[in-house]
Amino acid sequence: MIGVFDSGVGGLTVLEALAAELPAEHFVYLGDTARLPYGTKSAETVVRYALQATEALMRYRLKCLVIACNTASAVSLPAIRARIVNVPVIGVIEPGAEAACAASRTGRIAVIATEGTVRGAAYQQGIRRRRADAQVTAVAAPLFVALAEEGLCEGPIAEAVAHHYLDPLFAVPRPPDTLVLGCTHFPMLMRAIRAAVGTQVTIVDSAQTTARHVRRTLTESALAAAGGRGSLRLLATDAPQRFARVGARFLERPIEAHEVELIDL
Ligand code: DGL
């Protein structure tokens, strides 16, 4: 079983990419909907929540744990890795940073994320570690989270918000050539984001790059499923109905409320 953890439904974008990359694997996804959002909370609180979620997921005898939440990946990976030493733990930040460095010609890279991810500076460090000359600009774009959950991913409101966050980064003389979507929710707004930055910018979706990274890790450690059909188990810490309704848009397939198991951490 592969465990996937997020603060709520946003990580279903990562799960979708994982299931497409690894169709024979069995997944258990935990959304901590009772305590969402993580993006505005202190690092100490996010680490505490992430460790509790890790304990809950470890009951499923995991062979790999994916931290789909960018905010949790940014601040809690060392603590989680120290807690579960025998299971590979993969966050979304390092694969995203690697893809950004590979994509950028100029070294000017923009990152949009939650407040907590920007403050934690993990993307900035991950990029500079690989490319010392990189000029990284990271800004928080919290309204994108609300828009994605409301289903307002296209149209005038999404476009206005995209311009609000992205014009100061891109409507400048020497703009970045690469933009990292450093939050689970942001791939949902791809069209509005693309329209705001134009066609010349490479957009790095950390969900896709993480899925490829997980496949590589499983293959290299001979842990990948040999074949057959995969499965998905959904867990939430609050409001399974809402999880099913909002989550269906993120997963791009219907979810019945009874498919979502309510758990306490
Ligand atoms: N999952 C979070 C992230 O990727 C976004 C939502 C939240 O703030 O909890 O950073």
Description:
The chain is an alpha/beta fold. It is built from eleven helices and ten strands. The structure holds D-glutamic acid. D-glutamic acid binds next to helix 3.
* General form: globular
CATH level 3 topology of the largest domain: Rossmann fold
**Would you tell me the structural class of the helices and strands?**
alpha/beta
Oligomer: single chain
**Strands in their spatial order, largest beta sheet:** 4-3-1-2-9-10
Give the low-confidence spans: none
CATH class of the largest domain: Alpha Beta
Overall radius of gyration: 17 Å
* Helical percentage: 40-55%
N to C succession of SSEs: EHEHEHEHEHHEHHEHEHEHE
Number of structural units classed as domains: 2
Report the biggest beta sheet as strand number plus sense, adding barrel if it closes: 6 strands, parallel
- Which hetero ligands occur in this complex? D-glutamic acid
CATH architecture identity of the largest domain: 3-Layer(aba) Sandwich
Question: How many beta-strand segments?
Answer: 10
> Percent of residues in beta strands?
15-25%
